[in-house]
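Regression test case RT-17, inverse folding.

Input:
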């Protein structure tokens, strides 16, 4: 029943709703909400005992207004540095100024610019392993140790235990699959197993 009444009264409630909304918004002083019965009684008693209190509260107090103008606020909070302001930069220890996203390294980690004697980067290791793979006689361990200033024993171990991946690309796209040997049927395996079990049982009877 309530839903039917709501549907029937909806056109009446929505009639000229925009104009009524503008009229309420354009009011300089909105209508106050109705007071509670207890508050209303206290308000009535206050007006009865202090009739001039309402008029005094609506007037501007010059003395209080003067005191308010003389009030100042002094803050002792620490000054926050402006991040956008240019600061003195120590040239001996410069801070990174590039805030953009870093490009990932080729080998997953940063490659140092200065390499101490007897050390080598992964890039150069992969280079001389490839050169040794192409021509092992011309690029032997002794030659590589002289070129890269490394101990010859270390180079020999690297060439022995580390290899480069090879990619094999078949020339023919359609190649028939070949198998290592014929598939052994399950029946033959079962018969062989029965023969072994029979031989084991016969030997066991002879031992008894």
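Golden output:
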């Amino acid at each position: 029943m309530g839903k039917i009444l709501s549907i029937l009264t909806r056109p009446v409630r929505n009639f000229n709703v925009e104009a009524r909304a503008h009229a309420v918004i354009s009011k300089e002083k909105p209508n106050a909400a109705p007071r509670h019965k207890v508050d209303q009684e206290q308000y009535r008693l206050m007006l009865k005992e202090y009739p001039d209190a309402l008029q005094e509260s609506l007037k501007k107090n010059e003395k209080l207004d003067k005191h308010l103008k003389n009030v100042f606020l002094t803050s002792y909070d620490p000054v926050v540095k402006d991040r956008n302001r240019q600061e003195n930069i120590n040239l001996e220890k410069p801070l990174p100024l590039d805030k953009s996203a870093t490009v990932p390294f080729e080998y997953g980690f940063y490659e140092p610019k200065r390499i101490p004697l007897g050390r080598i980067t992964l890039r150069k290791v992969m280079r001389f392993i490839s050169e040794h793979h192409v021509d092992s006689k011309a690029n032997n361990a002794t030659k590589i140790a002289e070129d890269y200033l490394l101990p010859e024993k270390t180079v020999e171990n690297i060439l022995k235990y580390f290899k480069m991946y090879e990619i094999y690309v078949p020339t023919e796209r359609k190649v028939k699959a070949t198998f290592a040997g014929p598939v052994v049927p399950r029946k033959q395996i079962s018969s062989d197993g029965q023969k072994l079990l029979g031989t084991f049982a016969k030997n066991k009877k002879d031992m008894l």
